[in-house]
Specification:
Layout: E1 12-19, H1 21-24, H2 30-47, H3 52-59, E2 66-71, H4 74-86, E3 91-96, E4 101-107, E5 110-111, H5 112-119, E6 123-124
Parallel strand pairs: 1-2
Antiparallel strand pairs: 1-4, 1-5, 2-6, 3-4
Length: about 130
């Protein structure tokens, strides 16, 4: 099966939103922050493994598409999680333990156009 182009309607994407202040203000090592994103993405896939969109996303293993966005701080990340919950968008807010620090969140794979309006204010993670 041919992969759908990144800009094609219906393209399945997994969005990951990471707190940029962890690197830029709190001086977390970049590797630690990347690990948080990996945890969240894996958890979202696991929690929604039987979802048809998740299964379709996994079937296209060599052409998965992820977008990593930056949230400026914990408040912005928590507010986004609340917004997604209210909109019925399945996601996993990753809370690092034992510190109990929300570090990032990942959406289950979904059509880009269904969630992009909720994520519009977040820019690519730098």
């Amino acid at each position: 099966m041919a992969a759908t182009g990144a800009g094609s309607p219906g393209r399945l994407v997994q969005y990951v939103v990471v707190r940029s202040d962890l690197v830029h203000q709190l001086s977390w090592p970049l590797g630690a922050v990347i690990t948080q994103a990996c945890h969240a993405a894996t958890a979202a896939i696991h929690l929604h493994y039987r979802d048809p969109e998740t299964q379709q996303y996994l079937e296209e293993l060599d052409s998965m598409h992820k977008v990593v966005l930056g949230a400026p701080d914990e408040a912005a990340l928590s507010n986004l999680s609340e917004t997604l919950t209210k909109a019925g968008v399945a996601h996993k807010l990753w809370i690092e333990q034992p510190e109990n620090i929300p570090t990032c969140l990942a959406l289950k794979p979904c059509a880009k156009e269904t969630v992009q309006p909720l994520l519009r204010k977040f820019k690519l993670f730098k």
